[in-house]
Design brief:
By secondary structure, the protein is an alpha/beta fold. The chain has two domains: about 10-260, Aspartate Aminotransferase, domain 2; about 265-400, Aspartate Aminotransferase, domain 1 (Alpha-Beta Complex), CATH 3.90.1150.10. The protein has helices at about 10-20, 45-50, 65-80, 90-100, 115-125, 140-145, 170-180, 195, 230-245, 250-280, 300-305, 325-340, 370-375, 390-400; strands at about 85, 105-110, 130-135, 155-160, 185-190, 205-210, 225-230, 285-290, 315-320, 345, 355, 380-385. It has a seven-stranded mixed β-sheet with strand order 1-7-6-5-4-2-3, sandwiched between helices. A five-stranded mixed β-sheet has the order 8-9-12-11-10. The chain binds pyridoxal-5'-phosphate.
Length: about 400
Protein backbone atom coordinates (compact mmCIF):
# COMPACT_ATOMS: atom_id res chain seq x y z
CA UNK A 1 0.00 0.00 0.00
CA UNK A 2 1.34 3.45 -0.81
CA UNK A 3 1.08 5.64 2.27
CA UNK A 4 0.53 9.36 2.17
CA UNK A 5 4.08 10.63 2.83
CA UNK A 6 4.62 12.15 6.27
CA UNK A 7 5.06 15.94 6.16
CA UNK A 8 8.44 17.40 7.15
CA UNK A 9 8.99 19.02 10.53
CA UNK A 10 6.98 16.63 12.71
CA UNK A 11 7.72 16.62 16.43
CA UNK A 12 9.77 13.86 17.99
CA UNK A 13 6.71 12.41 19.79
CA UNK A 14 4.97 11.99 16.45
CA UNK A 15 8.04 10.52 14.77
CA UNK A 16 8.26 8.00 17.62
CA UNK A 17 4.87 6.54 16.72
CA UNK A 18 4.88 7.10 12.93
CA UNK A 19 8.34 6.56 11.43
CA UNK A 20 8.52 3.14 9.74
CA UNK A 21 8.56 1.54 6.32
CA UNK A 22 5.38 1.75 4.23
CA UNK A 23 2.41 -0.38 5.26
CA UNK A 24 1.95 -3.71 3.55
CA UNK A 25 -0.92 -4.30 1.10
CA UNK A 26 -3.20 -5.01 4.08
CA UNK A 27 -3.03 -1.48 5.47
CA UNK A 28 -2.23 -2.51 9.05
CA UNK A 29 -2.15 0.39 11.54
CA UNK A 30 0.32 -1.31 13.88
CA UNK A 31 3.57 -2.16 12.11
CA UNK A 32 3.77 -5.70 10.74
CA UNK A 33 6.21 -8.27 12.09
CA UNK A 34 8.03 -9.85 9.16
CA UNK A 35 9.24 -13.05 10.78
CA UNK A 36 11.02 -14.53 7.77
CA UNK A 37 14.64 -15.46 7.21
CA UNK A 38 14.61 -14.98 3.43
CA UNK A 39 12.63 -13.12 0.75
CA UNK A 40 11.31 -14.56 -2.50
CA UNK A 41 12.64 -12.85 -5.64
CA UNK A 42 10.44 -12.20 -8.70
CA UNK A 43 13.06 -13.50 -11.16
CA UNK A 44 16.75 -14.37 -11.41
CA UNK A 45 17.87 -11.03 -12.86
CA UNK A 46 16.18 -9.01 -10.06
CA UNK A 47 17.68 -11.40 -7.54
CA UNK A 48 21.13 -10.82 -9.04
CA UNK A 49 20.75 -7.01 -8.87
CA UNK A 50 19.53 -7.13 -5.27
CA UNK A 51 22.38 -9.39 -4.18
CA UNK A 52 24.84 -7.09 -5.95
CA UNK A 53 23.31 -4.13 -4.14
CA UNK A 54 22.52 -2.21 -7.34
CA UNK A 55 18.77 -2.45 -6.68
CA UNK A 56 16.95 -2.04 -3.36
CA UNK A 57 15.05 -5.04 -2.12
CA UNK A 58 15.13 -7.56 0.68
CA UNK A 59 17.01 -10.81 0.19
CA UNK A 60 17.95 -12.34 3.53
CA UNK A 61 17.34 -11.17 7.11
CA UNK A 62 21.03 -11.18 8.10
CA UNK A 63 21.39 -8.37 5.53
CA UNK A 64 18.10 -6.55 6.08
CA UNK A 65 14.45 -7.07 7.00
CA UNK A 66 11.43 -4.72 6.83
CA UNK A 67 10.71 -4.86 10.59
CA UNK A 68 14.36 -4.28 11.44
CA UNK A 69 14.50 -1.45 8.88
CA UNK A 70 11.42 0.18 10.46
CA UNK A 71 13.11 0.07 13.87
CA UNK A 72 16.32 1.52 12.40
CA UNK A 73 14.50 4.41 10.69
CA UNK A 74 12.48 5.24 13.80
CA UNK A 75 15.52 5.21 16.08
CA UNK A 76 17.50 7.37 13.63
CA UNK A 77 14.60 9.86 13.54
CA UNK A 78 14.65 10.08 17.35
CA UNK A 79 18.45 10.43 17.61
CA UNK A 80 18.55 12.93 14.75
CA UNK A 81 20.99 10.87 12.66
CA UNK A 82 20.79 10.07 8.96
CA UNK A 83 20.71 6.34 9.59
CA UNK A 84 20.86 3.55 12.16
CA UNK A 85 21.67 -0.14 12.04
CA UNK A 86 20.29 -2.81 14.35
CA UNK A 87 22.37 -5.36 16.24
CA UNK A 88 21.57 -8.47 18.25
CA UNK A 89 22.36 -6.66 21.54
CA UNK A 90 24.12 -3.59 22.86
CA UNK A 91 27.38 -5.53 22.94
CA UNK A 92 26.71 -6.71 19.38
CA UNK A 93 26.49 -3.04 18.37
CA UNK A 94 29.81 -2.20 20.03
CA UNK A 95 31.44 -5.25 18.43
CA UNK A 96 30.09 -4.12 15.03
CA UNK A 97 31.44 -0.62 15.59
CA UNK A 98 34.91 -1.83 16.56
CA UNK A 99 35.10 -4.34 13.70
CA UNK A 100 34.04 -1.66 11.26
CA UNK A 101 36.32 1.15 12.40
CA UNK A 102 39.47 -0.45 13.82
CA UNK A 103 42.43 -2.46 12.58
CA UNK A 104 45.75 -3.62 14.07
CA UNK A 105 47.89 -0.66 15.07
CA UNK A 106 44.95 1.65 15.77
CA UNK A 107 44.44 3.30 19.13
CA UNK A 108 41.26 4.01 21.13
CA UNK A 109 40.69 6.38 24.04
CA UNK A 110 37.88 5.14 26.26
CA UNK A 111 36.35 6.24 29.54
CA UNK A 112 37.37 4.01 32.42
CA UNK A 113 33.75 4.04 33.64
CA UNK A 114 31.99 2.44 30.66
CA UNK A 115 29.89 -0.74 30.92
CA UNK A 116 32.00 -3.69 32.15
CA UNK A 117 31.60 -5.83 29.03
CA UNK A 118 32.59 -2.81 26.92
CA UNK A 119 35.81 -2.49 28.93
CA UNK A 120 36.56 -6.16 28.30
CA UNK A 121 35.61 -6.10 24.63
CA UNK A 122 37.70 -3.08 23.73
CA UNK A 123 40.49 -3.49 26.28
CA UNK A 124 40.99 -7.25 26.16
CA UNK A 125 39.41 -8.84 23.08
CA UNK A 126 40.48 -6.17 20.62
CA UNK A 127 43.95 -6.03 22.20
CA UNK A 128 44.36 -9.59 20.86
CA UNK A 129 44.03 -8.14 17.35
CA UNK A 130 46.53 -5.35 17.91
CA UNK A 131 44.16 -2.52 18.83
CA UNK A 132 45.53 -0.54 21.76
CA UNK A 133 43.24 1.28 24.20
CA UNK A 134 43.99 3.92 26.81
CA UNK A 135 41.38 4.17 29.57
CA UNK A 136 40.90 7.63 31.04
CA UNK A 137 38.83 9.52 33.59
CA UNK A 138 35.18 10.01 32.65
CA UNK A 139 35.23 13.70 33.56
CA UNK A 140 38.81 14.98 33.08
CA UNK A 141 39.00 16.30 29.50
CA UNK A 142 42.74 16.99 29.86
CA UNK A 143 43.32 13.28 30.46
CA UNK A 144 41.47 12.44 27.22
CA UNK A 145 43.53 14.99 25.36
CA UNK A 146 46.82 13.68 26.76
CA UNK A 147 45.90 10.12 25.80
CA UNK A 148 45.40 10.86 22.09
CA UNK A 149 48.16 9.43 19.87
CA UNK A 150 48.31 11.62 16.75
CA UNK A 151 47.74 9.60 13.60
CA UNK A 152 46.86 6.41 15.50
CA UNK A 153 43.84 7.35 17.62
CA UNK A 154 40.76 6.51 15.54
CA UNK A 155 38.03 6.43 18.16
CA UNK A 156 37.02 8.12 21.41
CA UNK A 157 34.37 6.18 23.33
CA UNK A 158 32.26 7.40 26.24
CA UNK A 159 29.06 6.58 28.04
CA UNK A 160 27.09 9.23 29.91
CA UNK A 161 25.86 9.12 32.60
CA UNK A 162 27.88 6.13 33.78
CA UNK A 163 26.74 3.07 35.62
CA UNK A 164 26.38 3.04 38.61
CA UNK A 165 27.82 6.39 39.80
CA UNK A 166 26.11 8.56 37.14
CA UNK A 167 29.25 10.56 36.25
CA UNK A 168 28.55 12.84 33.29
CA UNK A 169 31.08 13.66 30.58
CA UNK A 170 31.10 16.74 28.37
CA UNK A 171 30.11 15.40 24.93
CA UNK A 172 30.89 18.67 23.13
CA UNK A 173 34.41 18.85 24.58
CA UNK A 174 35.16 15.22 23.66
CA UNK A 175 33.75 15.68 20.13
CA UNK A 176 36.04 18.69 19.59
CA UNK A 177 39.04 16.67 20.81
CA UNK A 178 38.17 13.72 18.56
CA UNK A 179 37.70 15.87 15.49
CA UNK A 180 40.91 17.79 16.14
CA UNK A 181 42.72 14.45 16.04
CA UNK A 182 40.89 13.14 12.95
CA UNK A 183 39.08 10.58 15.10
CA UNK A 184 35.40 9.80 15.72
CA UNK A 185 33.49 10.17 18.98
CA UNK A 186 31.03 7.40 19.86
CA UNK A 187 28.66 7.81 22.82
CA UNK A 188 26.75 4.97 24.49
CA UNK A 189 23.38 6.66 25.06
CA UNK A 190 21.76 3.76 26.86
CA UNK A 191 21.07 5.53 30.18
CA UNK A 192 19.39 8.62 28.73
CA UNK A 193 17.93 7.40 25.45
CA UNK A 194 17.13 9.97 22.75
CA UNK A 195 14.14 11.09 24.83
CA UNK A 196 16.61 12.97 27.05
CA UNK A 197 19.93 13.23 25.24
CA UNK A 198 20.87 13.31 21.56
CA UNK A 199 24.68 13.11 21.44
CA UNK A 200 24.92 14.17 17.77
CA UNK A 201 23.52 17.58 18.79
CA UNK A 202 26.74 17.99 20.80
CA UNK A 203 29.00 16.80 17.98
CA UNK A 204 29.19 13.04 18.54
CA UNK A 205 29.60 11.00 15.35
CA UNK A 206 28.09 7.72 16.52
CA UNK A 207 25.47 6.82 19.09
CA UNK A 208 25.44 3.32 20.57
CA UNK A 209 22.35 1.71 22.06
CA UNK A 210 21.54 -1.28 24.14
CA UNK A 211 17.92 -1.46 23.00
CA UNK A 212 17.49 -4.01 25.78
CA UNK A 213 17.05 -1.16 28.26
CA UNK A 214 14.83 1.92 27.94
CA UNK A 215 14.16 1.68 24.19
CA UNK A 216 12.44 -1.64 24.79
CA UNK A 217 11.22 -0.58 28.19
CA UNK A 218 9.64 -3.73 29.59
CA UNK A 219 12.59 -6.06 30.06
CA UNK A 220 11.61 -8.62 27.42
CA UNK A 221 14.23 -8.89 24.66
CA UNK A 222 17.84 -8.08 23.76
CA UNK A 223 18.55 -5.53 21.05
CA UNK A 224 21.21 -3.03 20.03
CA UNK A 225 21.93 -0.36 17.44
CA UNK A 226 24.43 2.13 16.09
CA UNK A 227 23.15 5.52 14.87
CA UNK A 228 25.27 7.69 12.58
CA UNK A 229 25.77 9.00 9.07
CA UNK A 230 24.31 7.08 6.13
CA UNK A 231 27.83 6.70 4.78
CA UNK A 232 29.21 5.00 7.88
CA UNK A 233 26.10 2.86 8.36
CA UNK A 234 25.83 1.69 4.75
CA UNK A 235 29.49 1.47 3.78
CA UNK A 236 31.22 0.52 7.05
CA UNK A 237 28.75 -1.16 9.44
CA UNK A 238 26.26 -2.92 7.13
CA UNK A 239 29.03 -5.02 5.51
CA UNK A 240 30.20 -6.07 9.00
CA UNK A 241 26.75 -7.32 10.05
CA UNK A 242 26.28 -9.12 6.75
CA UNK A 243 29.64 -10.86 7.21
CA UNK A 244 29.81 -11.35 10.95
CA UNK A 245 26.11 -11.93 11.66
CA UNK A 246 25.34 -9.91 14.80
CA UNK A 247 21.98 -9.12 13.17
CA UNK A 248 18.93 -8.00 15.13
CA UNK A 249 16.12 -10.57 15.11
CA UNK A 250 12.92 -9.24 13.46
CA UNK A 251 10.89 -10.30 16.49
CA UNK A 252 13.13 -8.35 18.86
CA UNK A 253 13.17 -5.42 16.43
CA UNK A 254 9.37 -5.36 16.46
CA UNK A 255 9.21 -5.37 20.28
CA UNK A 256 11.68 -2.46 20.48
CA UNK A 257 9.99 -0.62 17.58
CA UNK A 258 6.77 -0.64 19.60
CA UNK A 259 8.73 0.31 22.73
CA UNK A 260 9.93 3.48 21.01
CA UNK A 261 6.31 4.64 20.76
CA UNK A 262 6.07 5.07 24.53
CA UNK A 263 9.72 5.99 25.19
CA UNK A 264 9.07 9.72 25.71
CA UNK A 265 6.34 9.39 28.31
CA UNK A 266 8.04 6.47 30.03
CA UNK A 267 11.29 8.42 30.41
CA UNK A 268 9.39 11.38 31.87
CA UNK A 269 7.81 9.08 34.46
CA UNK A 270 11.09 7.22 35.20
CA UNK A 271 12.92 10.53 35.70
CA UNK A 272 10.22 12.07 37.90
CA UNK A 273 10.30 8.97 40.12
CA UNK A 274 14.10 8.92 40.25
CA UNK A 275 14.34 12.60 41.21
CA UNK A 276 11.76 12.17 43.96
CA UNK A 277 13.59 9.10 45.24
CA UNK A 278 17.01 10.81 45.17
CA UNK A 279 15.70 13.82 47.09
CA UNK A 280 14.02 11.58 49.64
CA UNK A 281 17.10 9.37 50.07
CA UNK A 282 19.25 12.37 50.96
CA UNK A 283 17.16 12.84 54.11
CA UNK A 284 17.00 9.19 55.18
CA UNK A 285 18.86 7.44 58.01
CA UNK A 286 21.75 5.14 57.14
CA UNK A 287 22.71 6.94 53.91
CA UNK A 288 26.23 8.34 53.44
CA UNK A 289 25.87 9.73 49.91
CA UNK A 290 23.42 9.86 47.00
CA UNK A 291 24.51 9.94 43.33
CA UNK A 292 21.97 11.40 40.91
CA UNK A 293 22.60 13.99 38.14
CA UNK A 294 19.32 15.74 38.93
CA UNK A 295 20.53 16.74 42.42
CA UNK A 296 22.27 20.09 42.83
CA UNK A 297 24.91 18.23 44.89
CA UNK A 298 25.97 16.14 41.84
CA UNK A 299 29.46 17.11 40.63
CA UNK A 300 28.31 17.65 37.00
CA UNK A 301 24.75 18.76 37.76
CA UNK A 302 24.74 21.78 35.45
CA UNK A 303 26.37 19.95 32.55
CA UNK A 304 23.91 17.08 32.98
CA UNK A 305 20.92 19.42 32.92
CA UNK A 306 22.25 21.05 29.74
CA UNK A 307 22.93 17.76 27.94
CA UNK A 308 19.95 15.76 29.19
CA UNK A 309 16.96 18.02 28.52
CA UNK A 310 16.93 19.11 32.16
CA UNK A 311 16.32 15.57 33.44
CA UNK A 312 18.50 13.34 35.59
CA UNK A 313 17.69 9.91 34.20
CA UNK A 314 16.22 6.91 35.98
CA UNK A 315 19.22 5.51 37.86
CA UNK A 316 19.87 6.52 41.46
CA UNK A 317 22.80 5.14 43.44
CA UNK A 318 23.63 5.59 47.11
CA UNK A 319 26.17 4.56 49.71
CA UNK A 320 24.84 3.17 52.95
CA UNK A 321 26.82 3.84 56.11
CA UNK A 322 29.44 1.40 57.39
CA UNK A 323 32.67 1.86 59.38
CA UNK A 324 34.51 -0.77 57.34
CA UNK A 325 33.96 -2.29 53.87
CA UNK A 326 32.62 -5.42 55.61
CA UNK A 327 30.05 -3.48 57.64
CA UNK A 328 29.06 -1.40 54.63
CA UNK A 329 28.48 -4.57 52.63
CA UNK A 330 26.44 -6.16 55.41
CA UNK A 331 24.31 -3.02 55.61
CA UNK A 332 23.84 -2.88 51.84
CA UNK A 333 22.79 -6.54 51.75
CA UNK A 334 20.38 -5.87 54.64
CA UNK A 335 18.69 -3.05 52.72
CA UNK A 336 18.46 -5.15 49.54
CA UNK A 337 17.19 -8.24 51.35
CA UNK A 338 14.55 -6.27 53.27
CA UNK A 339 12.79 -5.23 50.04
CA UNK A 340 9.60 -7.05 49.07
CA UNK A 341 8.66 -5.17 45.92
CA UNK A 342 11.85 -4.17 44.05
CA UNK A 343 13.41 -6.80 41.80
CA UNK A 344 16.87 -7.89 42.89
CA UNK A 345 18.52 -7.94 39.47
CA UNK A 346 21.32 -6.11 37.69
CA UNK A 347 19.14 -5.14 34.71
CA UNK A 348 17.65 -1.68 34.19
CA UNK A 349 15.29 0.08 31.82
CA UNK A 350 12.34 -2.03 32.91
CA UNK A 351 8.90 -0.97 34.17
CA UNK A 352 9.81 -2.89 37.34
CA UNK A 353 12.18 -1.03 39.67
CA UNK A 354 15.40 -2.97 40.16
CA UNK A 355 17.93 -2.95 42.99
CA UNK A 356 21.48 -4.23 42.80
CA UNK A 357 24.79 -4.31 44.68
CA UNK A 358 27.35 -3.32 42.00
CA UNK A 359 30.46 -4.41 43.96
CA UNK A 360 29.35 -8.06 43.90
CA UNK A 361 27.45 -8.15 40.58
CA UNK A 362 28.15 -5.85 37.62
CA UNK A 363 31.58 -4.94 39.04
CA UNK A 364 32.21 -8.19 40.92
CA UNK A 365 35.00 -9.35 38.63
CA UNK A 366 37.13 -6.25 39.23
CA UNK A 367 39.85 -6.40 41.87
CA UNK A 368 39.18 -4.45 45.08
CA UNK A 369 41.82 -1.90 43.95
CA UNK A 370 40.09 -1.44 40.58
CA UNK A 371 36.75 -1.06 42.32
CA UNK A 372 38.12 1.54 44.69
CA UNK A 373 39.67 3.45 41.79
CA UNK A 374 36.24 3.41 40.16
CA UNK A 375 34.62 4.65 43.40
CA UNK A 376 32.44 1.57 43.77
CA UNK A 377 32.39 0.76 47.45
CA UNK A 378 30.88 -2.19 49.30
CA UNK A 379 28.12 0.05 50.63
CA UNK A 380 26.94 1.15 47.19
CA UNK A 381 23.41 0.26 46.05
CA UNK A 382 21.96 1.05 42.63
CA UNK A 383 18.25 1.52 42.07
CA UNK A 384 16.92 1.78 38.50
CA UNK A 385 13.53 3.40 39.01
CA UNK A 386 10.75 1.76 37.03
CA UNK A 387 7.08 2.64 36.95
CA UNK A 388 6.18 1.34 40.44
CA UNK A 389 4.50 4.03 42.56
CA UNK A 390 7.17 6.16 44.23
CA UNK A 391 5.64 5.72 47.70
CA UNK A 392 5.88 1.93 47.38
CA UNK A 393 9.55 2.22 46.36
CA UNK A 394 10.33 4.46 49.33
CA UNK A 395 8.50 2.17 51.77
CA UNK A 396 10.35 -0.84 50.35
CA UNK A 397 13.74 0.79 50.89
CA UNK A 398 12.84 2.12 54.30
CA UNK A 399 12.25 -1.44 55.54
CA UNK A 400 16.03 -1.94 55.53
CA UNK A 401 17.27 1.63 55.86
CA UNK A 402 15.25 2.14 59.03
CA UNK A 403 17.24 -0.59 60.77
CA UNK A 404 20.67 0.96 59.96
CA UNK A 405 20.51 4.24 61.83
C1 LIG B 1 23.34 -3.16 29.08
C2 LIG B 1 24.32 -2.20 28.54
C3 LIG B 1 25.10 -2.52 27.42
C4 LIG B 1 25.06 -3.88 26.77
O1 LIG B 1 23.84 -4.13 26.19
P1 LIG B 1 23.26 -5.62 25.94
O2 LIG B 1 22.01 -5.33 25.17
O3 LIG B 1 23.03 -6.23 27.28
O4 LIG B 1 24.29 -6.34 25.15
C5 LIG B 1 25.96 -1.56 26.92
N1 LIG B 1 26.05 -0.35 27.50
C6 LIG B 1 25.32 -0.01 28.57
C7 LIG B 1 25.46 1.35 29.15
C8 LIG B 1 24.44 -0.91 29.14
O5 LIG B 1 23.72 -0.57 30.22
Amino acid sequence: MTDRPLPAGLHRDTLAVRTALERSQYGENSEALFLTSSFVQPDAATSARRFAGTEEGFTYTRTSNPTVASFEQRLAALEGTEAAIGASSGMGAILMMCMGLLKAGDHVVCSRSVFGSTLNLIGREFAKFGVETTFVSQTDVAEWQAAIVPGRTKLLFAETPTNPLTDVCDIRALADLAHGAGALLAVDNCFCSPALQRPVEFGADLVIHSGTKYLEGQGRVLAGAICGSAKLVNEVFAPVVRTAGMALSPFNAWVVLKGLETLGIRMQAHCAGALALAQWLQAQPGIARVYYPGLASHAQHELAMRQQSGLGGAVVSFDVVGDSPETARENAFQVIDATRVLSITANLGDTKTTITHPATTSHGRLSEAQRQAAGIGQGLIRVAVGLDHIDDIKADLLRGLGTLA
